Amino acid sequence: MTHQPTSAQDLLQVRDLGVEFTAPDGSTLRAVRGVSFTLRRGETLAVVGESGSGKSTTALALTRMLPGTGRLSTGSVLLDGQDLAAASAEELRAVRGARIGMIFQDPMTALNPVLTVGRHLDEVLRAHGSREKHGRRQAKAARRTRAVELLDRVGIPEPHRRIDDHPHQFSGGQRQRILIAMALAGEPDILLADEPTTALDATVQEQILTLLADLNRETGTALVLITHNMGVVARSCARVLVMYGGTVVEDGPTAEVLTRPRHPYTAGLLAAVPRLSAPSGTRLTGIPGSPPDLTLLGDGCAFAERCTLVEDRCRTGVPPLVELTDGVRAACLPAAARTEPLPAPAPPARIDRPATGAVVLEADGLRKTYKRRGVRGRGFTALDGVSLTLAEGETLGIVGESGSGKSTLARVLAHAHPSDGGTVRLRGQDVTRPARRELHAVRRQIQMVFQDPYASLNPRMTVGQIVAEPLISFGLGDRDERDARVAELLTLAGLDPAVADRHPRSFSGGQRQRIGIARALAPEPSVLICDEPVSALDVSVQAQIVGLLTDLQRDLGLALVFIAHDLAVVRQVSHRIAVMHQGRIVESGSADDICENPQDPYTRALLAAAPEPVPVKPALRKTEVLA
Amino acid sequence: MTSTPDLAPASPATLRKPVRAPQKGTLRKTSRHPYRAALSTARARTGLVLVGAVVLAGLLAPLLAGHGPTDQSGLSLAGVGTPGHPLGTDDLGRDLLSRVLYGIRADLGIIAIAVPVGAVLGCLFALAAAAHPVLDTLVQRIFDLILAFPGLILALAVTAILGPGRLPVVLVIALAEIPAFGRLLRGGILVQREREYVTAARVGGSSGPRVLVRHILPNAADPLIVQVAVSLTVAVFIEGAMSFLGVGVRPPEPTLGSVLSQSMPYLAQAPHFAAGPLITVTALVLGLSLIAEALNREVRR
Amino acid sequence: MTELYPSPSPSTGLSRRSTLLAGGGSALLLGLGLTGCRSAVSESSSAPEETGGKPRRGGTLNLAVNSDFVPALLFAQSGQSLQQRLIYNTLTRYDDALTPKPELATSWTYAKDGRSITLKLRDDVTFHDGRPFTADDVIFAVKNLQNPVRAAQLRSTAAAVNGFEKRGDHELVLKLAHPVNNLFDLFEFMIITDEKTVEDAVTGKKLIGTGPFKLKKWSPGSGLSLTRNDSYWLPDRPYLDGVELRVIPQADALISSLRSGQSQLSFAVPGKSLGVINSDPKLKITNYDTGAGAIYLGVNTTIAPLNDRTVRQALAWAIDRDRLLAQTLGGYGLASAAPWPKSSPAFSEAHRTHYTHNPGKARELLKSAGHSKLSFPLLHIGLPGETAIAESIQYDLKQIGVTTTLEPTDGATAQKKLISQEMPALWSMGHGFAQVQPSTLAVSAYPFNEAKNTSKYRSATYTKVVQEAWTKPETSAAEANALHEKISGILLDEAFIIDLVVRGQVQVNADRLHGVALNKFSYLNLDDAYLV
Amino acid sequence: MRGYLLRRLPSALLVLLGASFLIFTILRLVPGDPASSLAGPDADAATVAAIRERLGLDAPLLTQYAHWIGSLVTGDLGPSYAIGGQVSDLIADGLGATAELTVAALLFVIVLGGAFGILGATSRSGWVRSAIRVTTTAALAVPPFVSGVLLVLLFAVVLGALPPGGRVSFLGAPDLAAQYLLLPALCLALPSAAVLGRYLKDGIERALAEDYIRTATAAGVAPRRLLWRHALPNALPPVVTLLGMQTGHLLGGAVLVEAIFAWPGLGQLAEQGLSRRDYPVVQDLLLLLVAVFVVVQLLTDLVYAWLDPRIRWE
After folding, report:
1. Half-sphere exposure for A604 (CA within 13 Å, toward CB)
2. Which of D8, D27, D142 faces B1 most closely, judged by CB atoms?
């Protein structure tokens, strides 16, 4: 373990931090192991990693806010020399909010639905002593004034009017701003932001990141940004800490780490991130396998199972974090032995795509309005005259932010919801409002892959049953034939056919999405509608699934509708892209054209907001946006 | 009248990534059936032992009881430990141990019919409600009506109409259970129907009935399992209350409720009279509620 | 609506918090009531100063009853008749030997043929509203009882009066269609009410009588509140300032109210609980010879083989009356094969023990009638006490090979079946009207009615004897006794109503209460009662 | 809110109409009739017939039903058959008593249930939590008719501290009235308080596990405030729904408790009315109870909306 000397600049020193949970079966689960890092005043530090990497747990452990059975097992957390790991509850309370402010991932649930925004801020201000200043009433008035100031600072328009509104009356981005205001209220030295933009649209994400950067610059508050998004890291932080399997695998200046990763995991992760600059029809390299199961973790390097450089010694001991070059540390024995940085990832490989065939699916002027409860007479228009065509062997990418109507479009095309107007034609035949029997036939042709692999699989059925369900419904084969076909489909989707008798809950996200794909392929459809199929997946897994879909299209000649909010992914997989905004397609064209030569201002804004995992100077980016 | 107002939709931002607790992944290992997991907790085991003991005692009544439950003697209100009468005797000199054991038997016979009947009827109503909005309104009003009616008055009226015996007891219990199960299942169906796996099943070509039976019901049924345990408790109470009001099972057949209500006038002079049935009822109800709690925890996960 | 809630401005600060606080506060206040200044337990017994046992004015008597006053049954014998003689008066009152004594009637003379009676009435009596009592009120009282709507059990006797002759305001001749020998039962039974307010009386709104107490308030379900009638016709009476009839349905609660001194008098203590009372030195138990009605096993004589008298007699031999008495009534009462209580002129020890517990004999009788195993339904009222009685009967019958299925029935249904002759083969219930003139039983108690009864028993002999006993002028005691003997004989021999036990009429009172009396119809007389 | 109430009105009326029909039918199906019940055990046919005619029971059923609905519409409920007095007076008296009992019981439910829930969810002392578990389990495991008798036995018979039954008006002697009220209210409240306590405990535990609590904790809000100001208001709305349902139960359970404690309320009135086949009393009373239930449900929804700012009734 390297021991860095304490300097006056060091605000927070974390040494050998370990966190344990007790699993329901009584076994001990080590979520974080031997994490050490320092944070200097005013510094911006990103902690990046995939699910299960221990990044959020580390953040929560700093102020001892571990949920459930979580506890600090080793190490210390020195805040200006005070060890928070040993502090009393009262001392911790004085630190929380006042010295370390926190922002959480999901602004939908992180605010108390029954309290007004003003009350939220008031609670923080009251907790940190602005109470005893004057009389009760004056103190209260003072707090309110301060709350308005704070809301104004984080960019809530008309703060004096909105201070008495409840959280549900704000948009997601505004709620995140309110959370930031709360974190700032105690004028902390450190702002700890745990995936602050993950649930937000790209354009909103951009605004929030800008706000955080401004705050860091103006108030000198150190920022610890926990994220899974390399683009966000590149965009916001000077230094980055890469975590995997509960340990820090690499630590160094962002520019250095992103361009010359030393740890094979970092390298693999960067290679898996889709880049907007990559042209259509290229293939990403994912990291094989899936993030580790912490309960099964042995003594060796957590990444050993997925590593290309793995050696025998990697499996016997946890590699120490050693300084490899100036300011860059990595925890990898093979990498430490190398003098050269790892070779740059291979540029995305171009894949040969068969030419597209005849038009299979055609939509013309689709409309869909949802009746909104409580609002009399007025509905929410999700689709407002959408027209598109899809050819055999073609991938049509549909991009848009939340509320743009892209998911509704998917559902209307897949006949999960009826449209209110317009027509859908399948191979020239009008199937807008099919009769029951006809609908059955249409559904055999058009299948769907869902966004959330957790929610779209029936938790009560085994994988085999789930995949066999469409076969039964469409009356395909007898029992034995079905079993054989299920095995075939699972293999096709990259799963071991032996898993057929297990339940979805024993699979990881990526594997579940493979199950969903196997199910969708079961009736041998000609059109596959993929509604955000990779949004819920880790980056390394995302590349695998995208690759799978591309392969399937090539092999089966499928027509794909690929819906996503991430332009980079869409560009890679799609022949053509349609950009949706407020229920309308605002622009469509070939994938490369749209990304390189956008016409619609909205498309341009989307492109500008997409964070790229390339270190850039913020000032430069801004001018880009303006241009 | 929906008693739980539906939440108004929040702003339509979709969740990109499920919020995950840091200890996620630990659940992956538990591939056992959730109910079995729930029933193997210490709490549920205690409950199972209690209920099991009571049920076993009831089933083995003919072997365990030394006397016929209706055999009278001149020995009124003999105390606990009287030779031949371990729990003593009642006012008519009947052996209390036998009466309690046979009482358990009678109660089990009633609740084992009444609760399933109520549950099935309630579920049928819920299915009807799920089928069509008009039916839904109608069914909900029916539930309201049942809930609004004072149960014991209903019990008196039903017994007066049907005459004494098990039938009115079973009927009243079943009636009381209908809205409990019906509302629960209706709510469950409404929630599950919006789940994505249901859309997936429909897109996968499953017919309406198949989606309901194969996909929605198994998932909506979880709370019903808990409700069964709760309802069994309620059933024991209803039986008791009806006996107390003199409209229970036809005498002289003992039920836990009737022995208990017969003991009430002697509570001061012969407390042992009430002790047997009271302890039995308490053990049964306690056991059931422990099981319900354990299941409930598992279901809520 | 939301604007109210969590508003930071102090002006609209009425939030849930204050609501919750208010709620909690009031619950706390409720709890504090416990430790408050007065105790509801000790408050209720107010008494005049100690006077050394002499009658003394003042004090309120708390009377614990287990069921409420039913105004619709004001003119009928009902479960709860205690208030009748408190608010109203009757014309005469029986002494223990069933000799009439003056009340509102001061003297009476029968005509020789027994077809009319001349009554002299008190002239110093006023109703609670100040109106003087006259012969018209008696005429109204009789006519009122003749109205079937009033459901008076002694309607047949009242109906025998077919003419009135007023001689001034305070003398009256009642003319009879035929002689009746239970006219004084009627006079004991018939309360004198105010004609103008009689419709208000049967709805419980206004009870205007001439009695020692006036109605202050009737709260349905909780009881009657009575105050002293200051212009009562008996000088210096009553001693008490008031009487509170409190309904306490739960036996334990009723007993505890007596033991704690909250109430000082009750006739509703179940026999099986009297053991507790006995051990309390401050409480006194009085057992009235009149009894409180009899428990019987009714037999439907139209259902074979119950149409066979021998079978009915077998049933009568089967029942262990002493066990029934001991186990279901706590021993308070009289095991008896005949309906008569000890106070009845028809009572005789021989009749009482005509049937005893003799299962052997019962089986023999059954055998002689050609039966060994029989089974019948047995209807009873589904209240705990009645059920225990039926269970006991069922067990005894089982011992002679007669199995029965109990039919617990609610009171109203049972009553309807009783009076519309729809009873099943067997039923167990209670009857009254054996405590006065024996002839009253046969003409006023439906189960014994000669013309139409629940058992559907008819016999010319029974009709003849009953009519004779009823219309015999009250002259010769010996002749009357002979007729009573005949009636008892038929009842016992025919066994269509198998009497089991005469319930004890038990009075429990605090030893500080003196001078309590009951008339033969269980009307409470507190004229001379006082608290020390 | 007004629009919401107006929208709910037809279905509320539907429930009431259905209830009236059901009540009427059930009552006529019950054997025995008011006339023979009033006539007494020794009455002859003439007496019964005279009473039937007087009560109007000789009219066709439909006429009787119409007459009843008519009496409801005009508000003149007429006289009771058997109990005595005007139906409206009887019900008004009974309603007063029952309302008193129910409100007191509701207070107990809220205070006891609140204490059970809050302490059960937050107490650090395992001893306190176990005690609450045992208490709530016992309150649920002992049938109310037994707990009623046990309460009488303990407080009235053994301790002699409280009266065993009856009611004193709050107007004249509030301190005495409270003592009469205590036992029946407690008996009525215990099971509901236990249920409420469990719900509240679950609700608070769930709320405490929510993200917004983490947010507040991270902001340094004190644990006490976390509970009272952040978690509790979120745990309340479902509890209010439950409380609405429990109010129905309290009204229904009053039949038994009123019988045990001689509380002259609607339960007693209903039982008496039914046992004497006093049609008008039972009919009007049951319909009233249904109406109360409907109104309570409405109120519950409104309170829910008041507690949860996300809900708006249009």
Report:
1. 9
2. D8
